[in-house]
């Protein structure tokens, strides 16, 4: 039997229907990341007003009921009748996809929200939105519910003569079924970033959900120079002054701030285009990396730090220990992908190259001591890289990294499609034994690790490749060589799950593994392949029933459910090896019943700092961190 396929089966979704039907297409996900994206969309509109020179203060409030209010002192959304839609410009912007003042027409010179789905998508995915506009000495108010205007635009006189826009919205629980609760730290990280990227703009963030409101203000006259200072505050600078470049060419504005540090062996370069963090890089970062490598090699040869017969320093050598921010403002940006994580404008590469090259060259010529310090660090990095290369070749000859047999202790799965396969990294043989017996062999692999792996934060590459546990990890996962371009197609499992004991040693091993992934192949973390398993801490038995509790809070809540005179026993799981294979499967490994934490980097600068503090050479910042966060800290519940 064949079903007919005719015109009446073609759906035409009107207005904001497509957004509510397929929200993931517009905000990526309806989980926590998509929820927070709503706030960013509204805030970005206010910041675009600041970029255009019309706004100096943006206020963001999380209200007691969980709704959010964003207020700015910009020009105010236009409210006159739109010639095409016949509705007010405000209602048009709120209810029509791809309507906005950012597609030419002189409203904005540059802006971040260029897909034209910003505020209308927030409207579509909110239970209600109330917009207040102050302009032309009037106050305009309109309410929307699930994307639909409720009544007409209300207008009354505004005696204060101020201008601006206030957007008050409550996310729709029908769309955001996982959670509608905003995370303070996630939002504050993004707002701090915006404060650094827009020097002089004042951003006030208030959370009224607690009895004592939490209020922070971000306003940085020094802009991205202050951002680099913030990122390197736990490190030892190689040169006192931050190298700063600012310039404009063909309408493209470029800002770069750079600082090399003595006690860092990785680079940390953050790229932004029109205030949007370009996680996947793009032409601005390519231009910066190229000009850094070329300029440093030219200066090194001029100063006779590299002899005629010696080869050039590689880009990764020059960038070792470098913390930098590049922020470009492009009138017509071409972003690759809806999530705007990679800048595609080819002309930006050359503009960054020429502007940075000139200033960097002048700076190094005027500061020869700084030039020598950076070049000496790069030369040491080059020598270490050569030693690592020789170690790699040795490893390869032993056929461990290329076309290699998988490590003997790996219990592999039969699934060959990486997107359906997962691997559990477990400590020790006893936990490994339980995991191997309890797993589903079709799609779950187990790799037991003996002892604690190397601390990558303070280890040179040559040692990394000689370490057996690290070799096993690299081989089992199908990772490439450190520093080489990440190739997701070589990854053998798309869920890499760290499963350690719920004690101090387990927390340390978890942190060592996270440090390895973050420093060795950070794209694994950025692209969401790393997870942390959440095994239960307790088993409570009462009569013939038993319950698993994953936190101290779970346990206390469960005990309160029992009658006052009830008899029960509590078993505390110190290690995974204490669990029977079936228990481990039921509680921690079964996709139907388990809970896992996916590692996500919302605030790249803060993540980099935490790894430096926890795993770096300097003891004082680590002691301070432990003294600050130590009292009452449950390592099992610590989100790193």
What are the key terms here?
8-stranded mixed sheet, 4 domains, 5-stranded mixed sheet, alpha+beta, Heat Shock Protein 90, 640 residues, Rossmann fold, Ribosomal Protein S5, domain 2, disordered C terminus
Written overview of the protein:
- The chain is built from 20 helices and 21 strands.
- It has four domains: 17-218, Histidine kinase-like ATPase, C-terminal domain (Heat Shock Protein 90, 2-Layer Sandwich), CATH 3.30.565.10; 224-393, 2-Layer Sandwich (Ribosomal Protein S5, domain 2), CATH 3.30.230.10; 399-535 and 596-629, 3-Layer(aba) Sandwich (Rossmann fold); 538-589, no CATH class.
- With 640 residues, the chain is an alpha+beta fold.
- It starts with 16 loop residues before the first helix and ends in an 11-residue tail after the last helix.
- The protein is globular.
- It has an eight-stranded mixed sheet with strand order 5-4-3-6-2-1-7-8.
- The longest helix has 30 residues, at 368-397.
């Amino acid at each position: 039997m064949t079903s007919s396929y005719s015109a009446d089966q073609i759906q035409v979704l009107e207005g904001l229907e497509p957004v509510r039907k397929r929200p993931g297409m517009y905000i990526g996900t309806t989980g926590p990341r998509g929820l927070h994206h709503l706030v960013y969309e509204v805030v970005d509109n206010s910041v675009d007003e600041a970029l255009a020179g019309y706004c100096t203060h943006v206020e963001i409030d999380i209200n007691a009921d969980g709704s959010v209010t964003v207020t700015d002192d910009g020009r105010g959304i236009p409210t006159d009748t739109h010639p095409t839609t016949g509705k007010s410009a405000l209602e048009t912007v709120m209810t029509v996809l791809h309507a906005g003042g950012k597609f030419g027409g002189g409203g904005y010179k540059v802006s971040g929200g260029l897909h034209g789905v910003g505020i209308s998508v927030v409207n579509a995915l909110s239970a209600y939105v109330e917009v207040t506009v102050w302009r032309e000495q009037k106050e305009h108010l309109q309410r929307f519910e699930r994307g639909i205007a409720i009544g007409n635009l209300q207008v009354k006189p505004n005696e204060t003569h101020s201008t601006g826009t206030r957007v008050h919205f409550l996310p729709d629980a029908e769309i955001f079924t996982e959670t509608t609760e905003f995370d303070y730290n996630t939002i504050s990280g993004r707002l701090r970033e915006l404060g650094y990227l827009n020097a002089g703009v004042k951003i006030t963030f208030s959370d009224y959900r607690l009895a004592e409101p939490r209020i922070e203000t971000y306003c940085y006259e020094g802009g991205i120079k202050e951002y680099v200072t913030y990122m390197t505050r736990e490190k030892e600078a190689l040169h006192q002054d931050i190298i700063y470049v600012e310039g404009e060419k063909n309408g493209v504005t470029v800002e770069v701030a750079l600082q090399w540090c003595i006690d860092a062996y990785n680079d940390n370069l953050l790229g932004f285009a029109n205030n949007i963090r370009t996680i996947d890089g793009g032409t601005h970062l390519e231009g910066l990396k190229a000009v850094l490598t070329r300029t440093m090699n030219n200066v090194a040869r001029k100063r006779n730090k590299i002899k005629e017969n010696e080869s050039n320093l590689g880009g990764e050598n020059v960038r070792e220990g470098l913390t930098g921010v590049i922020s470009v403002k492009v009138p017509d940006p071409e972003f690759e992908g809806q999530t705007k994580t990679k800048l595609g404008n080819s002309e930006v590469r050359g503009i960054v190259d020429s502007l940075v090259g000139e200033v960097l060259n002048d700076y190094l010529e005027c500061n020869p001591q700084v030039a020598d310090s950076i070049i000496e660090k790069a030369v040491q990095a080059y020598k270490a890289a050569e030693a690592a290369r020789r170690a790699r070749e040795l490893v390869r000859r032993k056929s461990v990294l290329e076309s290699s047999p998988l490590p003997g202790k790996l219990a592999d799965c039969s699934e060959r499609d990486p997107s359906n396969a997962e691997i559990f990294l477990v400590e020790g043989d006893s936990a490994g034994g339980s995991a191997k017996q309890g797993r589903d062999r079709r799609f779950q692999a187990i790799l037991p690790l003996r002892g604690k792996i190397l601390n990558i934060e303070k280890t040179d590459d040559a040692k990394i490749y000689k370490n057996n546990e690290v070799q096993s990890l690299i081989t089992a996962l199908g990772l490439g060589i450190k520093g080489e371009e990440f190739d997701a197609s070589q990854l053998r499992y798309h869920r890499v799950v760290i499963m350690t004991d719920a004690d101090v040693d387990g927390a340390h091993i978890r942190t060592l593994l996270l440090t390895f992934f973050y420093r060795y192949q950070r794209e694994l973390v950025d692209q969401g392949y790393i997870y942390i398993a959440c095994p239960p801490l307790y088993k409570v038995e009462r009569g013939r029933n038993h319950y698993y509790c994953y936190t101290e809070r779970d346990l206390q809540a469960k005990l309160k459910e029992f009658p006052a005179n009830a008899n029960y026993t509590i078993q505390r799981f110190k290690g995974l090896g204490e669990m029977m294979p079936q228990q481990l499967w039921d509680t921690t490994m079964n996709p139907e019943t388990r809970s896992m934490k996916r590692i996500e980097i919302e605030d790249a600068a803060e993540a980099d700092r935490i790894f430096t503090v926890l795993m770096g050479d300097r003891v004082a910042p680590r002691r301070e961190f432990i003294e600050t966060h130590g009292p009452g800290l449950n390592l099992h519940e610590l989100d790193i």
